[in-house]
Amino acid sequence: MPIVQRLEDVTPTMIEDAEAATDTGPDAEPGGHERSSNPVADLGMSLKPHIDQGMSIQEVADRIGASTDLVDRCISHPIVAQLDEGTDGR
Fold first, then answer.
1. Is the pTM here over 0.85, yes or no?
2. How far apart are the first and last CA of the chain?
3. Rounded to the nearest 10 degrees, what angle do helices 68-75 and 57-64 cross at?
């Protein structure tokens, strides 16, 4: 799944894939990189910069048409947290 820069570029398919991944078992795949095979992490990496710039989880959820729970799960994903801390090995 691509990682997008703008919230307008988040597609319904990206949201559905992330929802499906959180519904079907562990969504953590530590060790991923910028384009992981994990839709939860990929969506999280797309959304995190907007949260970091001061948007609330509610605002982001409203803009992309997803639940606040999903947005929170995506931005809290271990791969996203790892990149945020700069501990992804690069």
1. no
2. 21
3. 110
